[in-house]
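Note to self: keep these together.
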Amino acid sequence: MSSKLKFFFIIGVFIFISLKYGGDARGVVADFSTSVTTGYLTTVERVKTWTEEYLAQRDAIRILRAHNSELERSALLSIAFAGKLNALLKDHERPPYAPSVKLVQAVSYVNLSNYHRVWLDFEDANQSRIYGLLHQGNTAGIVIFDQGRPLGLLQGDPKSIFSVSVGEDNIPGVAMGNNQYIQVRYIPMWMEPKVGDEVTTSGMDEIFFAGVPVGKVIEVIQEESYQSAVVLPYTQAKAPMYMYVVE
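Structure:
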């Protein structure tokens, strides 16, 4: 006999007893049957919740394993590329290329009305430098110093400025924050940036190394003596808790 049939058989027995032996018995049996029913339904709900949580965790683990495999592949490709690059630099008697990044933490907003400026926990920093900020492999802003404290200017801040390249032709420009967008200015008039072009760092200002993804062009504006491109950045978070600094 299945568990469901046993359950309904027991309930039937209690109902029979209650009908046969009067009001007092009916009250006792009713209370007991209610407790049994409530307990059964609670157990079913707990089992259902546990099953859903287990399945969700299993799917999350599967996704994380896939991401980890992709990251491992990217890391191997990067190592191979760095080896080839450094061999080429050695042939030309140039120092090896060894980019370095460091994890930093956003401590607080500088001002609660401005979500584009955050104080950072960044130890052993060179206060004479401007650093690039990365989040999930994309640009997130820059780091400057205000009265000796490391200040993160996220990409929406108008003073978050760094050099970039636009499109496959590596059109030069200067990226400046504009709230939820980035504006790439000083693009030469004879060049042809297009909507949909990918924008990456050029590395010419030594804030970022070259090739870090910034975003995609959504509009091209003709100015008097140059062109500008409006860019939707890949990093949309207002203030990520943790970011990387390009050292």
